[in-house]
Amino acid sequence: SQQGEEDPQALSIQEGENATMNCSYKTSINNLQWYRQNSGRGLVHLILIRSNEREKHSGRLRVTLDTSKKSSSLLITASRAADTASYFCATDRPYKLSFGAGTTVTVRA
Amino acid sequence: EPEVTQTPSHQVTQMGQEVILRCVPISNHLYFYWYRQILGQKVEFLVSFYNNEISEKSEIFDDQFSVERPDGSNFTLKIRSTKLEDSAMYFCASRATGTKDYEQYFGPGTRLTVT
After folding, report:
1. How far is the alpha carbon of A49 from chain B, nearest alpha carbon, in Å?
2. Which residues of B have a CB under 8 Å from any CB of A?
3. Tens-digit pLDDT profile for residues B86-103
4. Which of A83, A91, B40, B73 has a CA positioned 20 to 30 A from the CA of residue A63?
């Protein structure tokens, strides 16, 4: 299975702090994607990093990819209450995504 | 900004009944997907669809499930005879072709409750 597995399962931080979560996967990938899901809602695409990329930024998000370790990390800087959500990594073959169990992030005001 | 839409947002049905979940993918997308998420569990791939046929399906997608693109805009998932364990959020997604990125755009989901 190519499934990504996130670590930690849950994270609670103060507003303004940074949040870091990690994802490990098992087999080679074309790319790795991060999604956000607010409670009971749909999946929002955050960022895609290709297998030949090592780091990517989008606003307050920073994603790294280490294909030798088969791992990725998502950093959210200067967190806000609105960042409270579950975050999933998904490994991609062209025809389907394999999701991990997610990291639940709670940002305290 | 174009988005994937799904109807209904919540469907309650009795065990053994047939349900059809509907999706309208982004208009210029050609790859379509269904995923499901049982409460508290991972998002699981069900099926992918391209060029009017199934590209790939998971073990979950058994004979009780079918997909169809009945016209140029809708993409449907039918569950022929629902079971209690089919209760889940069902997400539709679509992807453009001709791009190097394989970003999938997800709809808001349909919550299916089987009683």
Report:
1. 9
2. 31, 33, 35, 41-45, 48, 50, 55-56, 58, 89, 91, 93, 100-109, 111
3. 999 999 999 987 565 678
4. B40
